[in-house]
Each structure stands twice: as structure tokens, then as C-alpha cells.
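Good morning,

Attaching, inline, the C-alpha cells for the sequence recovery test we're adding to the shared suite. The designed sequence is right after.
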């Protein structure tokens, strides 16, 4: 929630900076890493059966991040609607996993993460420069059509 409030305040108060989105992406990476290792420690036996979902999600994240580094020499900080939705779904999936309410919310979240990372790859391919806060691949496509 603090991440969301911080972003909204930066927009409302016109306090956006070049480093803000990148710091936000690094914080997201740290949060996802902590979530992954924490769940692995607490629910490793349950999570071990979900490698078919985890590996594609982690691999697609690594590929989308490496593509940004390769193309722009910077960490992608697109902050798409899909990424925000995936973050929320991951929160629900983790809560359901930890509370032992079922695995399907986690699987839905991991599928959303994979789709989000594929969108990030497409944005990296289509965008001529490293940019922040894009919203969705549709914005890039509209911009390209307008040129």
C-alpha cells in the first residue's frame, strides 16, 4: 500500500523524478525476492509441487529484465497496469498459500506475472528508448502509429 500511496502522492504533488520509478522497481524486486524466499522457507514442501508455475514466472522476469539491460542499459521501470494487477494477485496468492486456502490463486497470479513479463518484453522491443511509467503496450503501439 505504501508503494501505491507513494506513487499517487508523487503524481499529485508533481514530485516525480528520474530516480523514483527505478527505486520503485528495485523495491518491488526486493519485495518479490523476500516473498519468494519467505514462502519457500515457510511452505517449501507445498511450493515444491508448483515449480511448473514458478520457473516460467521467474524465467520470464529474468528475460524481460535482461532485455531492458541489453537494449537500453537500464532497469525497465514501465509500471504497467498489468504489473500492478500482478502485484495484487501475487499478494492474494501468497496469503491463500500461507493460510492453506488453496493453490489456485497463486497459479492465477503466476500466470498473470508471466503475461506481464511478456508485455514488458514487447514494450522493450517496441519502445525506442528507456522510459518509465508507460501504462501498457497499447500506449507504445498508439505512439508508433502516430509517427
Amino acid at each position: 500500500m505504501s508503494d501505491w500511496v507513494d506513487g499517487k502522492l508523487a503524481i499529485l504533488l508533481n514530485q516525480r523524478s528520474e530516480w523514483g520509478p527505478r527505486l520503485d522497481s528495485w523495491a518491488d524486486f526486493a519485495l518479490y525476492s523476500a516473498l519468494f524466499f519467505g514462502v519457500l522457507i515457510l511452505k517449501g514442501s507445498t511450493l515444491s509441487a508448483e515449480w511448473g508455475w514458478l520457473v516460467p514466472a521467474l524465467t520470464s522476469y529474468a528475460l524481460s529484465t535482461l532485455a531492458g539491460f541489453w537494449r537500453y542499459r537500464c532497469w525497465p521501470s514501465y509500471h504497467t497496469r498489468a504489473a500492478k494487477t500482478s502485484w495484487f494477485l501475487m499478494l492474494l496468492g501468497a496469503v491463500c498459500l500461507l493460510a492453506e486456502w488453496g493453490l489456485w490463486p497463486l497459479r492465477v497470479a503466476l500466470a498473470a506475472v508471466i503475461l506481464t513479463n511478456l508485455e514488458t518484453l514487447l514494450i522493450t522491443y517496441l519502445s525506442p528508448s528507456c522510459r518509465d511509467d508507460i501504462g501498457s503496450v497499447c500506449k507504445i503501439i498508439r505512439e508508433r502509429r502516430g509517427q
